[in-house]
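JOB MANIFEST
job_type = single_chain_structure
chain_count = 1
residues = 510
[input]
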Amino acid sequence: MNPIELDGRHLTLEEIEAVAEGARVTIAPGAQQRVQRARDFVDSRFDSGETIYGVTTGFGRLASIAVDPVDAVALQVNLVRSHAAGTGEPLSIPFVRAAGALRANSLSAGHSGIRPETLQLLVAMLDRGVTPVVPSQGSVGASGDLAPLAHMTLTLIGEGEAFYLGERLPSRTALERADLTPVELGAKEGLALINGTQVMTAIAALGVLRAARLAAAADVIGAMSLEAYLGTERVFDRRLNDLRPHPGQERVAGNLRALLAGSQIVQSHAECDRVQDPYSFRCIPVVHGAVRDSLAHVRRVTEIEANSVTDNPLVFPEDGEFISGGNFHGEPIALVIDFLKMAVAELASIAERRLYLLLNAQDRGLPLFLAGRIGLESGLMIVQYTAAALVNENKGYAWPSSVDSIPTSAGQEDHVSMGMTSANILPRVLDNVEGALACELLGALAATDLRRPLRSGRGTQAAYEAARESIAPWTADRPPAPDIAAAREVIRSQRLVRAAESAIDHLLSP
């Protein structure tokens, strides 16, 4: 794979994910020129003796205190050291790599005043497998992710800790093994490196991509459940859904039509006297569609943030100005992370309800709990308990952290976003959604077996076969935990969705 080129303006979420998974990066030639021009401007203003926030003054509430220019380097080093106040478990290597790519991309825009050699070290660390150890807690998302980014910056100056090819080491040792040399920070560089929203944005970027894949899996599993439940497909009629033309609803209805096309199971009850199914089946296009529309909004905001300059003060060499502002505030990304948590949690909520109905569908010809010998066997009874527990956890996790604010920096930073709190919770919400969908998938598979020899739809049949490659039929009671783990894997690997897409020649992903 060719290196991903950073220019501060065109980085995609898919490229961020590629870097998180190990792709190399490079700085675009035009960006290198902008970076050098901004640095020349910083040097010229510094040499002139001008008072510049964070360059010849203190930080935050200390902004009014002048600092002797001879202490400019010490000022930047002290900033990084004092702000590296994180705690908690380290962020995963993919999250930190994604944040590093975002930080390099923002600096590449040429408005931060970083030195080219400092930016190149950040890029070289990504390319050679040096990943700073970044504690997950300590950011309030006000002047960006100060504590996490300070821990990232420690590695650049040979302090703190870093992973090198997976091994946790002192940063200086990790750099040496990668044949890299720490930098000595120049004027403004510490501030440029730690002021920004890149850590929470990294987690949002990877999270929204994962959420989109879960949304596609939810369509497939929901279709399988409806089919096995003997639900009606008339609710996916194009005419009906065109009258409420939300893009997500129309897309999901089309997905379900394609997945169920040719289903003998659906046709087997076409003449029954039932006209309506419970909402968790009947409203799949509405609920899943609303989630997809929410994800589309989150993606738009996250892509903008990924290509934004969010430190302070910002450098405008073409105008001969430094401008102090509030681009570092995490509110835009904090709000959409909270929105993402709430939206994707709905996929788990409705999935658990569908599973509940499958296990209690005696009126539809299915045995209670899908057990083979009712009473002697419990079937999938407790699988639904597990799904319910995961949904309950998400109800707490989905509470929006961004509605809170605790003033910091002696009142100078009197409103903060708390975006990193939500970012840290987001992976747990996504894990729980995956788990609930895995539980529903087990129910859909077992119920489908009870409808044989009738064949499923083109898409649902392909999905069934893909899942059955790693999940054995439920013929008698056994511990369901390994099956749940296998169902998670078939969802996470995208094998389930890809099998269905291949069979119907139709893309299910948003």
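[summary]
The beta strands are 4-6, 25-27, 87-90, 130-132, 135-137, 161-164, 167-170, 314-316, 321-323.
DSSP finds 20 helices and nine strands in the chain.
exit_status = 0
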